[in-house]
Amino acid sequence: MLRSTSFLVLSFMFVAISLSSCKKKCVINKDTIDNGLIISDVVFYPSSGSMTGNMGIDFIIDADHKYSNAIEVSMSGSGRAPIDFTQYTALCFPVYATCNASFERNVSIDAATQTVLFKIDVTQCPDCKDTLYTENYVLVPTFPSNYTLVQEVTYINK
After folding, report:
1. Residue 36 zone, left/alpha/beta (φ > 0; ψ -120 to 50; rest)
2. How many CA atoms lie within 13 A of 66 on its CB side?
3. Measured distance CA(122)–CA(42) in Å, rounded
4. What global pTM score does this model have?
5. What is the pLDDT of residues 11-35, one digit of tens each?
6. Residue 83 CA to chain centroid, in angstroms?
């Protein structure tokens, strides 16, 4: 009887210590969510990595952009092809995030203020110490060249 009581007490102590010392693991759904005017199911193929680092602040890629010929896209699983700038404009919004992060991207156009708003919500786990650079290329319908790009990023630590 004493042996089974001791075993029961030790078992409860082990469970209590195990549960109290557990740290909740941060889990992120790593799927990127695109909303607004972003064309879905597009894969970008820039001619070099981190190309946005050489763009300064010129993140509207249209037919006149110096990198307009340096990016190909695949739309809806088709083969790689140059961007048709008569129909589309590419935007990019480079951000830094932890190695465990997801992105919700939204592009809207306000004709009254002649602005294009590119907004990104980054949900990330702060316990991941590595930081990654993500270029966030998106394809949107063509808009007038005199419109201004406004970029907003919100970081949500989970």
Report:
1. left
2. 8
3. 20
4. 0.81
5. 444 444 444 445 678 888 888 999 9
6. 21
